[in-house]
Specification:
single chain, mainly alpha, two-stranded antiparallel sheet, 3% strand
Length: 309
């Protein structure tokens, strides 16, 4: 007797096998585990150790007990940087998520025109963050940049980088412009996995395009949204090179987010012990926010959306 694996037709026109598939052996994960341990776990452990030391980067670290952590919680500059990091993360998420979601769902279609435009959308993802930051820094130069010509047309102050709100929003926009294609790609892949039969049933019931989007597409993409949001939160909390090149933490300290404060503390004042405490605190905040998002989104209990079909 022959056995056939059933398939489900998806929104993108492809077919996905449904059935029991044996899990690969644990040995397949060993290279990834070793890579993660060497380049993530070990450096993190070193940073945690240094956060309890005094170190100028030249001499040997000396134990400092809880001095760095006591200073951290009393430091108003750290509190401001933490608030700015959270604010920048919130703005970035609110800006990138709806645009990336809509573009991803739209790009999931098989029309050739969509494929061409999608390729254009993904170009910023191929550029380095440094190059993009330098490009926008030149475009937004209040003396010679393009902003001096087109800014007044849209009611934008050419010196937008000289204002607290303008500088922070600009950093969020530049980061979103570069990384939105990545999240669009995630949503595109998720939308192509939505079973076509759901849309066919909705059309038979008279549901229009908007009802299908809100009652089928969005619920089916809930775990994709969680995945994208976690990556977006971690990425936004670690903005550094964009801030370094475009604002240098200014005007004043109005864009001095935690990664830039860590850099300035460690490599300008050579207080690497305190910089390690800032870095460790940043890891704790990013991990906590990610776990909270996963916990309350139900991502940990994720099951296949095609199960039983």
């Amino acid at each position: 007797m022959s056995h056939h694996t059933p398939h489900v037709k998806t929104r993108g026109g492809g077919k996905t096998a449904v059935g029991n598939v044996g899990r690969p052996p644990v040995s397949w994960a060993l290279p990834g585990i070793l890579f993660f341990a060497v380049f993530a776990i070990v450096p993190l452990a070193i940073a945690v150790y240094l956060s309890f030391c005094r170190w100028d980067g030249l001499n040997s670290p000396t134990p400092a007990g809880l001095d760095n952590w006591t200073r951290l919680f009393k430091d108003p500059e750290f509190r401001q940087a933490a608030w700015l990091s959270l604010l920048l993360t919130t703005i970035s998420w609110a800006f990138q998520t709806p645009v990336a979601l809509l573009l991803g769902v739209w790009a999931a279609g098989r029309q050739r025109s969509r494929a061409v435009l999608s390729a254009v959308f993904f170009v910023p993802l191929l550029l380095s963050t440094t190059a993009i930051a330098m490009l926008f820094h030149a475009l937004l130069d209040p003396n010679f940049g393009v902003i001096t010509k087109i800014g007044p047309w849209f009611g934008i102050d050419p010196n937008i980088m000289g204002t607290s709100t303008g500088a922070l929003l600009t950093v969020a926009f530049v980061g979103g412009w570069q990384f939105m294609p990545f999240h669009t790609l995630i949503y595109q892949g998720g939308a192509r996995q939505v079973p076509e039969v759901l849309y066919q049933a909705a059309e038979m019931d008279g549901a229009g395009m908007f009802r299908q989007f809100f009652h089928i597409t969005l619920p089916q993409l809930r775990h994709t949204i969680t995945t994208s949001s976690v990556l977006m939160i971690v990425g936004s909390l670690t903005y550094f090179d964009t801030v370094l090149i475009m604002t240098k933490g200014g005007p004043g300290t109005d864009t001095t987010v935690l990664p830039y404060l860590m850099y300035r503390t460690g490599f300008q004042t050579y207080d690497l012990g305190y910089a390690a405490a800032i870095a460790t605190a940043l890891v704790v905040v990013a991990t906590a926010l990610s776990l909270i998002l996963v916990r309350f989104s139900g991502f940990g209990n994720m099951r296949s959306t095609r199960e039983g079909m």
